[in-house]
Each structure stands twice: as C-alpha cells, then as structure tokens.
Amino acid sequence: MITIYLIASVLIGTGLFFNRGKALNYTLICLFLLVQCAFTMYACLHYTETTANYFTFDSLGLIMLLTATIISIPAVFHSYIYIEESEEMTPRSRATYFGAITLLITAVSAAYLANHIAVVWIFTEITTLSASALIYHHRNKLALEGTWKYVFICAISITFVFIGILFLSLSFVNAHSDDLSYKNLLLHSSLLNSSWLRLAFLFIFTGFTAKLGLFPMFTAGVDAKDKAPGPAAALLSSIVMCMGFVGIFRIYVIVANTPLLHWASLVVGIAAFLSLFIAAVYMIKVKNIKRMMAYSSVEHMGLVMLGMAAGGIGYYAAVLHIVLHAFVKSSLFFQYNQLYKVFKNKNVYHIGNYFKYNTTGAMVVLFAFISVTAMPPSGMFVSEFLIFRSMFEANQLLLLIVVLLLLTLIIWAFAKSIFKILFIPAVNFDESTVPVISPWRSTSQFILLGGAAYLGLNPPIIFVDLIKTSIALLPH
Amino acid sequence: MLHVLLIVFLISLFYLSIANRMTTYVNVLAMQGILLFFVAFFELKNINTLNLILILLETVIFKSLAVPLFLKYILKRNNITREAEPYLPNFVSLIITTAIVITTIILSNTMEEGKLDKMFFVVALSTLFTGLYFIASRRKIITHVMGYLVIENGVFVLSLAVGNEMPMLVNLGIMLDIFASVLILGVFLNKIGDVFKDIDVNQLTNLKDY
Question: How far apart are the C-alpha atoms of A116 and A65, rounded to whole Å?
Fold first, then answer.
C-alpha cells in the first residue's frame, strides 16, 4: 500500500511542478489530500502491520501520521489563501510551492513509518530538498540567505546522521547480521559494542537536532521559519519537528535497552537544557514576531527532550507534548499571515492594537498564546506538568528550579510582545489601508487549538493507549 | 599500499590547511577523489563489477572531474578572488589540523577493538573535523562548500571501512554525496553568485534577531 501512496504522491508532485494551470494545480493538491487521508485511514486499519518490508504502521508512526494529516489539510487551505492573495504570485511559483508541499508531506509521512534507519535517513534528505524550495518561495536576497543556511546546515546534519549509521553498523559487527532495522537492532541490543554505539548515538542525535530544532543545530530551523511563507513555516515547526523527534526517539529506544541508558539521557538532557537556555536568551531580545514563534518551538523541543531524559512518566509526556505543540504552533503560524496582512510588518514595534482590526484573529492569537505558554486550560499544561513531575521523580530538583526560572523568563518575554500586539496601538500606523479579513479563515486555528486542549485535558483512551504502546519498549 | 594511500590522503589535509590559492583547494579535492578510488579498489575485495563501476563513476568522474571543473567554472564566472582569506593565519591552521589528527589518534586508541582498521577511523574522523574547521575559519561561501566536500570525502572513507560487511552503506554514501553536492553546488551556489555579486559570508548576516 505504501508503494502506491508514494508513487501516487510523487506523480501528483511532479504533475504540480510541470503544470502551471490554476484549476489543474488545485485539483491535484486536493487529490493529494484525498490520497493522504486514504493512506492514513489504511494505516489506522492495518495497525502494527508491516508493508513493503521497510515500513511498519506502529503506534508512534501512527500518532505522528495522524497529526501530519490533520495539520496538512489547513496548511493547504491557508497556502491557497496565501498564494492567491500574494502580489508576487506567478504560475511558476505556485506550481513549485504546491509541488514542494506535496513532496514534504509525503517524505515526512514515510519517515514516520519507516522501520529501517537508512530509510528514515533517505526521507530526511528529501525533506531538506522540498523544504528548501518552500523557504526560497519569495526569491529575494533574504529568502536566499535563509535557504542557503538551511540547506548547508541540513546537509551537514544528514552527513552526521550517515556517519552515525556507519558507526552503528560497526557496533553491530558482533551480531553477524547486516540488517539495520530498528527491530533487529533491538533484538540484538545486548550484542552492540558500547563504545561504537556511543559515537553512533552522538552523531545521529546531533544530526537529527537540525530537524527537531534543538541545540546545537537549531539555527537553521529558526532562519527557515522566518523566511518561509506562513503555512510552510507552520509545517516546518510542526510535522518536520515531529520527524526529527521520531528519528531521535527510535534510536533512543535502542540505546535505552543497553547499559548506556544513563549516559544517553545525560546527553539528551544537556542538549535540552541548553536549548531552553538559548530560547530564553533570544526570546528576551528578539523583536521579529515570526522568529519569536520559532524560538518558542526551540523551547518546547527542549522541554520534550527533558521529559525523555527524565524517563518514567516523562516519556509519555514527551510524546503528548510534541503532538500538542504541533497543533498549537501550526495554528499560530497560520494566524501569522492574517497578522502580516494587516500590518505589513514583522517587527513588534510596528504591530499593535490587533483587537481593533481583526477581532477573531486577535482571539486566535490570544488563545494560542495561552496554549503555547502552557497556562491552564491549555492541553500543554498537562504535558508540561507531567514533564516537571518526571523531573521531580528523577530527583533533578535543581535542574527543575532552573528550568522553571527560564520558563518564567520565556513567558514574560512572549507575553510582553503578544500583549503589545493585541492591545497597545502601534506608532505611525496608517489605519486606512487595513483590509477586512473574513472571520471564517480562523476556523481551522480554533479547531486545532480546541483539539490540543481536548487531547491534553481529556485524552481519548485510544490515544493514551497508542502513546503507551509507543513507549512500551523504553525501560520504566 | 592501502595505508600509504590513506596517509597521503591525510597529508593532503595538512596541505589544504596552509593553502592560499583557491585553485589549490580545487586541485587537492580532485586528487582526493583519485586517492579514494584506489582506496576503494584495494579495500573492497569481494565486490561485484557493477558496484565497482558505480564507485569508479562516483570517485573519478564525479569527485575529481565534474565537481572540480564546476568549482573552477564558478570561480571564473563570479570573479572570485584567488585568495582563500582565512580568519586565522596559516600557521595556526596547521597547528589546529595537527591537533585534530592527534586527538583522533588518541580517540581511536580508546575505542574497543572492533573489526575496523584504525587507519580508516583516524583518517575519516580527522577529515571530518578538519572539514568542519575549514567551514568555521574561512570567509568565502565557496570555501565553505569546499569544506563540506572535504567532509564528504571523509564520510566516503568511513563507509569504505564497513563496505565489506555492508555494501549497501557505500551506495548510500554515494547517494548522499551526489544528492548534497548537486543541491548545494548546482542550485544554490549558482543562485548566490547571481544575487550577491561578491560572495562573502559577511553578506549573509541580514537574518538576525534585532
């Protein structure tokens, strides 16, 4: 089935690249959404089955696939609005944009489900390619700079992952098997040579941080989200980050089943703490609202990884948190385009009194702010609380106190900008050019935010079961 | 013979670290491609002909002909000055490269005895870190790209070390090489040359958190 999905998506993607007609473009992208939904349905119905040798519909892959499909529908809708209202739109840029979106969603979905580390790696490469086309959408100097930095850092990061795979194969020579699938690695985890495995984990972890948006390779993602169009940035800060998480999670499961668990959690914890620290420092300083949202993603990925490092209930909280973050952050990025349309500026100094110009949009920003800073009744309050609990249970009280202080700083910095945007009038702002924005365009954001709150506060049993199965292989 | 080739490869890194002219960088990269072919030829004993042809195409045709020619074309077309313009003096570069090599040798001695030839490990890792050092210490974007190509060469050496057990990984390495080089060189260096007249990383500092 996945072969059919991949072939169909690639055909649709190439069709989009080469057909510049408007009607045909939108027919094809709708067709792709249908294919994506049908594939997700198929995956749900064939839970735990393996298809085409290299793909398994396991619980973690399924959670992420569902998240990706749910987010991709509003992403395409907002892309439609964005492209049609853009002044620079040409048939060529539209075709490239939608072709790249198709390729990105397909590659990310396949990477979630892949059960072989080399296959994950291949699809990670493809996301770099398609994401770079999205970031370069505006074709100006700044977009080129953002794209160049993204491509270069991602190229280095995938090289790192590849080196990690090579070391992994070296640590695996005692097992007399050349199958690097996760299942086989887990089966032979007692035979893995620990010093090679250490190197392998370091390189694979560092490589995937570029996609996850964690220290040390977070910079590429921040620049990319700043320069990419709003809906594309939403995809980059939700489903692509989930892909980085899946890449790290699957190798972490293997390392956790060897005596290296303690060491690996230390590595992950240090990277996570530094990410939080960097996010706090930059968020106090940054005035560009889009970059501020991107740094907020860095902060949340730091929290997710702190949960992973702490263990226990932290594993559950980490998976929950990354799913909720994907919903909340993508809705914030979808809303960003309306904000930009009103003020024609990203700088907080030139944005203000948003409630006056677009009440519905301002409500989305307010609710998204409440969700993203994990204030109750946000769903992320639950997951963040569980992460803190896991750190408390792991006896990391000092770290917890520092993390809470950093989070306070982040909330203060974020709130300062968001309340400025919502309530304080901007200086020298010409009100006569403010366009009227239909409140209906915010529907998807409300649904995503509401969905995040629902999943956090009252998760359906099936969702809890899926998360529990996906972390079952980790030692508790 | 294998070790001689690998040591020559290592020496080429030292040469790169003190090279001044851009053409020297291109020539050393071309030479490394040839060296890699012979390393692959001697190391991979039970390899089928098709795979060997693929490796030949990758190392000789791609690494030492296509990429250097393309780099020279870019140098000429964008009127890039001949100087490499490092941030640090060459002498310091040489010391840092030496330090990297010594560190990897010490690191290789701490590794538990595996089936890996330590020479491969030392050469591959020191190439990797030297490439990263080149990226960090050179001013021009094109030298960053060359630093990346050096890293790719190091990765190729490492993939050859496991090539006898897992030939698939060598092919994956080739795929990475071609994919990333085409993406970086073909698409973006061309574009950057068109948009920014004199390519210098100092021009790529407009995305910042003000």
Answer: 17
